[in-house]
Amino acid sequence: MSTGFFGDIAKIQYEGPDSTNPLAYRFYNPDEMVAGKRMEDHLRFAIAYWHSFAWPGGDPFGGQTFDRPWFPKAGGADTMDLARLKADVAFEMFSALGTPFFCFHDADVRPEGDTLKESIARLDSIGDYFAAKMEETGIRLLWGTANLFSHRRYMAGAATNPDPDVFAYAAATVKSCIDVTRRLGGANYVLWGGREGYETLLNTDLKRERAQAGRFLSMVVEYKHRIGFEGAILIEPKPQEPTKHQYDFDVATVYGFLKEYGLENEVKVNIEQGHAILAGHSFEHELALAASLGIFGSIDMNRNDYQSGWDTDQFPNNVPEMALAFYEVLRAGGFTTGGTNFDAKLRRQSLDPQDLLIAHIGGIDCCARGLKAAARMIEDKALSGPLDERYAGWNEAEAKAMLSGERTLEQISQRVLSSGIEPQPKSGRQEYLENVVNRYV
Ligand code: XLS
Ligand code: NI
Ligand code: NI
């Protein structure tokens, strides 16, 4: 039985680029083949439980703006009944949008208990409720995670807290979240360390805290193998916010960290568009780097407001940006366990249930357009052709010998001096390539 929250909604259909129906897809056509694969299987869209169903619409200057039937009444308690109603509405939305996956934190889906035991029992009970709905609808779990940043016990970090009791509490919490993720057949488990950093170095032993984080992550990996969880473990980099400095700053930093603890073959990254921007990178930079290091896992899709400098988690609406992002995803071989999770929320004035649908429809269409443009660029070798040409010199025997270790610095020097090599600069053709990209988007 429908909750009626969205009124009489039918499943959102693909109507093609000319449609003006706000509740239809114009570019996302799940069964359409793109580069040899169904669009749905390329994009693997997921809806984030927290932004769409748990977030009340607050900002640093004001509280709740959304009125949702599953929010506790003013002064009232949060209950399991409300948590189940929230799940009912969430699965109605996943089904209407036809998105194959969802993602959640423990704190999004169940009211916190008085003890950890009670919190875990509630999580398990909602897990069972999800299992039945997943069975009924065919919707799957892209990833589960633990919220180790909202409660005040985590204000000075979870794994990196100066208090070993917080480390232990976080470990027990993560264990329970991996357990439920595994039970629900989750394709990944994500760790985002919002408070794993510092506000000031004056009270922080950075060396010790990084070592704590290393041990914590190693235990997560050991546990995953012990229980036979088949999903990937993913770290989600972010440079700051809420902390002034976060230890998982960006893809390069995470890779160094994984190497230090011997985890580079065990853990991959979940790269978020807005976090890349906060770190002073482009999204495609983070994707290309992760792919080149062999740690590309999944993406969190959103965008920041480029003027405010905050992690505003808006829905993506810039097709050229998405084209470059999915170009890197395709070049990396596409998703395996990963997918495209909308870690994006409405603006706080977007009060209507329909706004939730429209926001996702727009984001989904934007990604679909980006994917299609990226696939055509690859098919036409629009960028890879000029790239191969640019590096063609390296196909020659003498050039290969320099890289393979067959030449010493002295030998190279001798060859250059005796043959009188004078390198001739060639155009990098940036504007030409930018114009080429614009032909596809
Ligand atoms: C916050 C993060 C968070 C993670 C999951 O900035 O993006 O939402 O994706 O904990
Ligand atoms: Ni984020
Ligand atoms: Ni995220």
From TrEMBL:
Mg(2+) 2 binds at residues 272, 275, 311, 313. Coiled coil: none annotated. Its cofactor is Mg(2+). It comes from the Bacteria. Keywords: Carbohydrate metabolism, Cytoplasm, Isomerase, Magnesium, Metal-binding, Xylose metabolism. Belongs to the xylose isomerase family. Homotetramer. GO terms for biological process: D-xylose metabolic process. PANTHER family: PTHR48408, XYLOSE ISOMERASE. It is found in: Cytoplasm. Binds 2 magnesium ions per subunit. Its EC number is 5.3.1.5. The keyword Aminoacyl-tRNA synthetase does not apply. It catalyses: alpha-D-xylose = alpha-D-xylulofuranose. GO terms for molecular function: magnesium ion binding; xylose isomerase activity. The active site is at 105, 108. GO terms for cellular component: cytoplasm. It is an enzyme of class 5 (isomerase). Gene3D superfamilies: Divalent-metal-dependent TIM barrel enzymes. This is Xylose isomerase. Mg(2+) 1 binds at residues 236, 272, 300, 343.
